[in-house]
C-alpha cells in the first residue's frame, strides 16, 4: 500500500489517470451487479454489504419480501472473497502486484461469466430456480469481496471503495466546503456517477435476462483491469 501511494505521488500523470479510470469502470460494474441481484435475485445485494446487513435485520424482524438465507449467503460469500483477497494480496509489490491485479480481475470476470452460465443453464427449470438464485448470489458476492479487498490495497485517494458511496458522498460535500475545493473531487463525483450509470445499465439489460448484464459486467472488468495493469507495466 505504501509503495502504491508513493508511486501515485511521484507519478501523478497517465499512470494515476488510467488507474482511476479503471476503478471508475469497476464502480459501474458494481452498479450492474447490484441491479441484477436486487431486481433479479430477490431483494438482496451482492456488492453493497451495508444494504445487505439492513436487509438481514429486516428479515430477522419478519418483514416480508426479504430473506435471511439470501442476505446471509451474500454476506458470507463477500466476506470469503474479501478475506482471500486480503490475505494473498497484502504486501504484494512490484511485478508481482501487476500479476496479482491481473489474477484478481480475471477471477472476477470468470466468476461473473460462471454466474451467467448458471443463469442460462438453469433458466426455465422451476425446480432449480432457488438453486440458481443462490448460485448466482454466491458467485457474484465472492467476486465483489475479492475485488473490494484488492481495491482497498491500491489506496487511491477518492476511490477507496468501488461498491459503497456513503463515505464518497460525504467526502465530496466536505471538499466543496473547503476554500478552493479538492482537485481530486472529480474522482468522487465520477464514482457516484459511475455507480448510477452502471445500475441503470444493469436494470435495462435485465430485460434480456440475467446472463446479458453479467457478461457485460465481465467484459468491463477485463477492460478496466488490463487498462491499469498495462499502465503500471509501462512505468516499470
What is the fold's blueprint, element by element?
Elements: H1 2-10, H2 14-40, H3 49-60, H4 68-89, H5 95-121, H6 129-154, H7 166-176, H8 185-205, H9 211-235
3D architecture notes:
The longest helix is centred in the N-terminal third of the chain and has 27 residues, at 14-40. α3 runs antiparallel to α4 and α7 runs antiparallel to α8 (185-205). The chain has a single domain, classed as Growth Hormone, Chain: A (Up-down Bundle). It has helices spanning 2-10, 14-40, 49-60, 68-89, 95-121, 129-154, 166-176, 185-205, 211-235. With 236 residues, it is mostly helical. It starts with a helix and ends with a helix. It is built from 9 helices and no strands.
CATH architecture identity: Up-down Bundle
Mean pLDDT comes to 80
Radius of gyration, taken over Cα atoms and rounded to an integer in Å: 18 Å
Report the top-level CATH class.
Mainly Alpha
How much of the sequence is in beta strands? under 5%
Indicate the CATH topology: Growth Hormone, Chain: A
The beta-strand count equals 0
For the record, give the distance between the C-alpha atoms at the N and C termini, rounded to a whole number. 17 Å
Q: Into which percent range does the helicity of residues fall? A: over 70%
> How does the helix and strand content classify structurally?
mainly alpha
| Overall number of structural domains | 1
- Principal-axis shape equals globular
- Number of H- or I-type helical stretches: 9
Unreliable stretches, pLDDT < 50, 5 or more residues? 1-15, 231-236
User: What can be said about the biggest beta sheet?
Assistant: none
The run of helices and strands is HHHHHHHHH
Amino acid at each position: 500500500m505504501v509503495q502504491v501511494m508513493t508511486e501515485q505521488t511521484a507519478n501523478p500523470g497517465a499512470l494515476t489517470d488510467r488507474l482511476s479510470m479503471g476503478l471508475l469502470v469497476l464502480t459501474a460494474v458494481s452498479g450492474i451487479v447490484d441491479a441484477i441481484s436486487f431486481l433479479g435475485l430477490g431483494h438482496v445485494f451482492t456488492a453493497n454489504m451495508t444494504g445487505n446487513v439492513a436487509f438481514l435485520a429486516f428479515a430477522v424482524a419478519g418483514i416480508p419480501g426479504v430473506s435471511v438465507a439470501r442476505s446471509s449467503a451474500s454476506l458470507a460469500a463477500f466476506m470469503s472473497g474479501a478475506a482471500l483477497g486480503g490475505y494473498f494480496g497484502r504486501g504484494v509489490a512490484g511485478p508481482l502486484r501487476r500479476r496479482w491485479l491481473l489474477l484478481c480481475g480475471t477471477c472476477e470476470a470468470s466468476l461473473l461469466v460462471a454466474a451467467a452460465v448458471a443463469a442460462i443453464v438453469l433458466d426455465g427449470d422451476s425446480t432449480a430456480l432457488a438453486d440458481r438464485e443462490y448460485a448466482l448470489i454466491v458467485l457474484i458476492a465472492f467476486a465483489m469481496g475479492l475485488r473490494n479487498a484488492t481495491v482497498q490495497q491500491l489506496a487511491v485517494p477518492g476511490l477507496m471503495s468501488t461498491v459503497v458511496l456513503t463515505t464518497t458522498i460525504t467526502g465530496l460535500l466536505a471538499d466543496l466546503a473547503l476554500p478552493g475545493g479538492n482537485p481530486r473531487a472529480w474522482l468522487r463525483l465520477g464514482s457516484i456517477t459511475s455507480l448510477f450509470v452502471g445500475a441503470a445499465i444493469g436494470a435495462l439489460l435485465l430485460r434480456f435476462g440475467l446472463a446479458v448484464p453479467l457478461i457485460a459486467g465481465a467484459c468491463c472488468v477485463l477492460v478496466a483491469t488490463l487498462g491499469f495493469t498495462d499502465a503500471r507495466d509501462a512505468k516499470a
